[in-house]
Amino acid sequence: MEENKDINLLAIDCIVTLIQYKLTISSDLLATLIALGIPERLAVVIDCLSHERNNPTSYKFLLKAFDILFAFGAGPAHVQEKMCESDILPLLFDSSRYFNTACLYKLCCFLSALASNPSLLNCLENVGVIPLCFMLIRHGLELKDDSAQVVLSAMV
Hints:
Elements: H1 5-21, H2 27-35, H3 38-50, H4 56-73, H5 77-85, H6 88-95, H7 101-115, H8 121-126, H9 129-143, H10 146-155
Helix pairs in contact: 1-4, 3-4, 3-6, 4-7, 7-10, 9-10
């Protein structure tokens, strides 16, 4: 990632701009991005940037990357299914131990969007969403402040 960091950050900005420009994201755009392997690359970028979250620039792009990920999770059913078929979820779950409260919240929002599709519930269970939820609850209880409520509210 380090050698391509500038290109990856530029790509994140371009996709965010594209998503913001098109107020409603078309399933064609999401399908094209999936065909190009963007979600998998995005998960790798999230993993790398989560290790650099103390760097303000990296953190800003980490949050943008989560926003893009949410667009896929909130997409039509065929897009959501593609998100569950790839290695995206296991990579995100593995990276989650490095996430701060804001990133955990965005991850929960993404998972909540996927879980809104009943046909994906078995897939989510198979990749380990239940143990992750327990970890998030435990993390939320350990925070003992308002941020715990924020993380837990995304799970509902």
